[in-house]
Amino acid sequence: MAIEVLVPPLGQTVDTVTLVTWYHDEGDEVSKGSPLFAIETDKATLDVEAPASGILRQLAAQPGEEVRVLSAVAFISEPGETVIISALSPDLVESLPSDASSPAPASQREEDGDGKGRRLFISPRARRLAEGHNVPLTALPASGPEGAVVERDVRAYLEAEGAAPVVAAGSSITPVARRMAEEGGLDWRRLTGSGPGGRVTREDVRRALEVAPSAGETVPVAGEVNEVAETVPLRSVRAVIAERMARSVTDTARVTLTAQADATALVALRQRLAQDEVRVSYNDLFMYILGRALREHPQLNASLDEDTIKAWRRIHIGLAVDSDRGLLVPVVRDVDSKGLSQLAEETRAVVGRALTGKSSPDELTGGTFTLTNLGMYGIDAFTPIINLPECAILGVGRIARQPVAIGDRVVVRHMVWLSLSFDHRLVDGGPAAYFLQRVVQLVEGPHLLMT
Amino acid sequence: MSSSEVPLLEMYRTMLTIRRFEERCNYLFMQGRIPSTLHLYNGQEAVATGVCAHLGPDDYALSTHRPHGHSIAKGVSLSIIMAELHAKSTGCCQGKGGSMHVGDMDVGMVPAIAIVGGNIPLAAGMALACKRLGTDRVAVAFFGDGAANEGAFHEGLNMAAIWDLPVVYVCENNLYGASTKFSTVFKVENVADRAAAYGMPGMVVDGMDVEAVYQVAGEAITRARQGGGPTLIECKTYRMVGHSRSDPRTYRTKEEEASWQEKDPIPRLAKRLKEEGLATDESLEAIDKEIEQAIDEAVAFAERSPSPEPADTLKHVFYASESGGEA
Amino acid sequence: MAQMSVAEALRQAIREEMQRDPRVFCIGEDIGVEGGWGGAFTVTLGLSDEFGHERILDTPISELGLTGVAVGAAMAGLRPIADMQYGDFLFLAMDQLANQAAKMAYMSGGTVKVPMVMRAPVGSTRRGAQHAQSLEAFFTHVPGLKVVAPSTAYDAKGLLKSAVRDDNPVIMFEHKLLYGSKGPRTETGAISATGEVPEEEYLVPIGEGAIRREGSDVTIVGKLLTVYRALGAAEQLAQEGIEAEVIDPRTLVPLDRDLILESVRKTGRLVVVEEDNITGGWAGDIAAMVAEEAFFWLDAPIKRVSAPDTPAPFAPVMEAYYVPSEERVIRAVKSLF
C-alpha cells in the first residue's frame, strides 16, 4: 500500500510553504527517516524526512512551487507496486495550472497532472456521480475491479466531505427548496435530504440556512466593536457537523449520567495481553465491554423513529475520531459477535480508512451506539452529544492514577470517568443507570467478560 | 378440344403483352431507368400463358427470380409491376421487393421467390391449405430445370404426393440453369422422368406451343381440383435472352439460338390464328398497338409515381393486422 | 391451477389453440404416430387421438420441406405449428425460415403474412455436438422473425398461445432439460421447471420480459436453462451480501430492452449468461446494447458467461465445463466488485 508524503504542518498560521528541492528523484529507493525534500517558510528552510522506506513515486510539486500544508506531494510505494492516483489532495490539484479554454478541465488535469499523462480508471457511473457533485476525480480512492474508481469510492468521499448521505446518483430537491437554497447561497447537494429517497426538502434547507452564517458578516455589539480575525464559511463537513449537533441537542431530551470506574484491572489486562503479543487499545476494550453491556441492555441499543421506538437486533458501535476534515464516526459492525483481537483489527482498519478519507459509505453509517474518548486530551467527565438516530453515547475520560478510598484506607488506583448521555424520550433514568452500572462493573472486573 | 373452347386470341394477347413488356424493360434498363438487373422471360411466354389460362384469382401461382411473365399471365397490372421495377412506392411491393419479387396476392400471384427451388415446398403448403379449407383451389409452382436438382424439389414433390395435394409443378426446362447445360447435370433425359420416383404423373410438353401447354396444364389442374393429387409437367422451352441483363450468352451457340428462334411461340400462334380465321395481320397489328399503349401508360405511371421515403425501410418487417399481429 | 411440466403446458397450449381455431394444426416428424412418442419430447403426445392425423400431420424426414409447407400453408390461410425435432436441424430449413418466412411480409410491401410457429428444442444433453446446439442467435439475427424462449411452464403455455395468434413467423426455442418429460423420454440432468399453470385462458405477451428475482447489486440476464443457473448463483451470492437481480427476457425478439436497461441503471453491473458459444452470440448483443444505452450507469465492465467457442462435447465432465455453471456465474459477478 503506497504511503503519502505529506507537507508537514508548521504551526497554526502557515497555510502554504514553498518546496525548495527534492533530495531524490522519482523511482529512487528512499529509506525512512532520511531527508526527502526541503521546504521554506518566510522564516526558515527545513528538511522533511521520508515517512517510510520504498520507491519514491509521482512527485507532484516542483522546486519553487507553493504547496499547501498537509497536502500530498509524492508517494512511497513498495517495489513493483503500481500506484493509482487516489489521494492527491484536492488542494494541490487546484493549484495546478488549468487551461481556461479546455472544455473538460477535470480530464485534462488527470491526463496532465504532473505532466506525466497517467490514465485515470474510473467507472462511468462513478464519474457521473463525481462530476455531478463537483468532486475532483483525482482526489478519489480506487477500490473497484482492475483498480478503478467506482461509485462507492465517490460516495465515501462525499460522505467524508460531509455531503452525506448521498442516496442516489444525483439526489433530488423539491423545487421550492431549490429556490430557497439558491437564494440563500447554499449548495443543496451537500445537504442531508429528509424527504422520500433522500430528497432535500424545504425544511432541510431552512435548517441548513439557519446554521450557515453569510460570509464576512459581523454583528456589531453596542458599545464595543470586535474585529473579525478570521472568517471560515460554514461549509462541507463543518456545516454538517454543526447542523447535526444542533439538531441532536434540540431534538433529544439529553441527560448525562457520570460514574467513576476503577480501571486498574483493565489496565493490568491490557498489559498482560501485550506481553503475549496481543495489542489492543483502551477503545478496543471499551468497545468489547459495550458490546456485552448493550446485549444485556437492549433499550440502549435503540432509535426513535417518529413515534416508534426501534430496538436494533444487531449492535454496531461507532467510534468518534478527530480527523483533519473534522469529526468522523466510523462504525464497527456486530461488535458483540467478535473477539477482542478481531475487534481491534477491524477498528484499526475502519478508523484508518476514515482518517485517510477512504471509508466506504457503509462504514460511516448504520451505528446503533457511539463511543467517544477524550481521555487523550486530559478530559475526565463531559456531556457528549448523542449521535442521532442513536439513543445514547458513552464518553470516556482519561485513565489516571488517583487516590481512592477502599474501606478506610486511601490507595492509588487507575480511575476513569464514564459519561453516559442518553435520550430521555426513549430511555428512562433507571435503565440508563443500570446500563452504566454494568459498564462500570465490566471495566472494574473484566474477568466477568468470560462469563 | 376444339379451338372454340381454347382461348387462343386471349392467349395471344397475353403472350404478346409479356413479350412487349419484357422488351420495354430491357430498353428501359439499357437507358438506366431501372436500377437493377432483370431476368427476362422472352421465349417462354407460352408456358406461363398456357398454364395461367386455367387459373382464377383465387388460385395461387408461385414463381421464381424470373417472374414477370407469370405475373402478367396471372393478371397482375402492368402499372404496378413497372412501378416496382422503377423502385417506386406505388409498386406491387411498395418498392420493397424489386424485379425478383413481383406479385399481387389480390390476383393470386404470390410475390416471387428468388431462391431456386424455394417455391416448391411453399406451393405444397399453399395447396395443403387449399385442401384443408375445403376449397377446390390449386397452387401452381413454376420453376426451371436447375431447381429440379434442389433438395427442396425432392422434399416438396414427395410431400405433395403422399398427401395428394392440389398442386401442379411446372418445370420450364430451357436447357440451362443459369449458364449450366442441362445435360451436364442430369442423368435422365427429362425432368418429368423423376415424377415416377414420387408416385405422381409426369408429363413432357412442347413449351413453345401454347396450345399443347394449355391442354396438358388443363388436365393436371383439373386432376388437382378434383382431388387427384399433384402432377409434374415439364415444358421444353428456351430463353431467348440472357439469364440476366449482364449475361452475354457465350455458353450457347448461335446455331442453337437460331433454331429455337424459329419455334418462337408468338409468331407460331399468330400463324395459327390466321389459319383459323380468328385474326388478320391488321387485327394483330392493332392488338400490338394496344399493348404498346398499355405499356406506355404503365411506364408513365411508374415515372410519375413517388419514390419511397428512406425511412420506409423500417416498415413491414412484421405484418400489421388489426388484431394486433405486430408486436 | 394445475401443476404442469413445460411439456404438459405446451401440449395444453396446442390443444387449446387447436380447439379454438380450426385453422391451427401441427406439422412435424414423429408427432402424431399411433403408439408413438408424441414428438421427441412428448409435447404432442395424445393430440392425434383428439384431433386426427390431418391436424397432427406427420412428415417424412424432410426438414426443409416441412418448414416450406408450413410457410406456404400459413401464407394461404392456415396457422401451422411446425415441430423441429432437434433445434440443430433448423439449419436444414434455414432457407425457408430466413429467406421465405422472415422476408415475405417485407418483400411484399406488407401484404402477405406468414402466421406460423416453429418449435425447436435446444441445449446440450450428452447426445453429441449435432444434437446439442443453442441456435437462438442465428434467428435473433434475422429481421422478420420473432423469437421466444420460455423457461417455465407458465410462460411456455402463455407464449405458445400468443405465438399462434401472432400473424408473424415465431420461432419458439425450448430447452431439452426443462421439458419435464416423464417415462422413457425422461432426460438425465433435467431441471424441474414445473409450476403452477392456470387452467383458465391466459396469454403471456410476446415482447415482455420477467424479473425472476429482485436485487440491487448486479443484474444477471439469462435465457432458458441459464435463468436457473443465474437464480442458483444469486442464492449463493446473497449469502455473501451480494443481491442479484435476475432477468428472464422470455422473448428474444422483440426484446424487452427497457426492463434490462432499467435494471442496469439501478444496479450498475451486468452479467449475461447464455448456453451458446461466446463469439457472435446473443450475450454479446445484449452487452453491446446496454453499453450503448446505459454506459454512464455502469460501475464495472459487462461480463458474458457463455460456452467456449467449441462444438458441444459428449463426455459429461466436458459438458459440465462447456455449459455455464453457477460457479462461473458467481465468479463473473464477483469480478465486478
Can you walk me through this structure?
The complex is a heterotrimer of chains A (about 450), B (about 325) and C (about 325). With about 450 residues, chain A is an alpha+beta fold. Chain A has twelve helices and 18 strands. Chain A folds into four domains: about 5-105, RNA polymerase II/Efflux pump adaptor protein, barrel-sandwich hybrid domain (OB fold (Dihydrolipoamide Acetyltransferase, E2P), Beta Barrel); about 120-165, Dihydrolipoamide Transferase; about 170-210 and about 235-250, Irregular (Dihydrolipoamide Transferase); about 250-450, Chloramphenicol Acetyltransferase. Chain A has helices spanning about 90-95, 105-110, 125-130, 150-165, 175-185, 200-210, 235-250, 265-275, 280-295, 340-355, 360-365, 430-445; strands at about 5, 15-20, 30, 35-40, 45-50, 55, 65-70, 70-75, 255-260, 300-305, 310, 315-320, 320-325, 325-330, 330, 370-375, 390-405, 410-425. In chain A, the strands form five sheets. In chain A, strands 9-18-17-16-12-15 form a six-stranded mixed β-sheet. Chain A has a four-stranded antiparallel β-sheet with strand order 1-8-6-3, with no helix packed on it. In chain A, strands 5-4-2-7 form a four-stranded antiparallel β-sheet. Chain A is globular and about 70 Å long. The model of chain A is unreliable at about 85-115, about 165-170 and about 215-220 (pLDDT under 50). Chain B is α/β, with parallel strands linked by helices and about 325 residues long. Chain B has a single domain (about 10-315), classed as Rossmann fold (3-Layer(aba) Sandwich), CATH 3.40.50. In chain B, the strands form two sheets. In chain B, strands 2-1-3-4-8-7 form a six-stranded parallel β-sheet, with helices on both faces. In chain B, strands 5-6 form a two-stranded antiparallel sheet. The relative contact order of chain B is 0.16. In chain B, strand 5 and strand 6 (about 180) form a beta hairpin. Chain C folds into two domains: about 1-195, Thiamin diphosphate (ThDP)-binding fold, Pyr/PP domains (Rossmann fold, 3-Layer(aba) Sandwich); about 210-335, Rossmann fold, CATH 3.40.50.920. Chain C has helices spanning about 5-20, 45-50, 65-75, 95-100, 105, 135-140, 155-165, 225-240, 255-265, 280-295, 315-320, 325-335, and strands at about 1-5, 25-30, 55-60, 80-85, 115-120, 145-150, 170-175, 195, 210-215, 220, 245-250, 250-255, 270-275, 305. In chain C, helix 3 (about 65-75) packs parallel to helix 4 (about 95-100). The model of chain C has no long low-confidence stretch (mean pLDDT about 95). The interface of A and C includes residues 124, 125, 126, 144 and 148 of A.
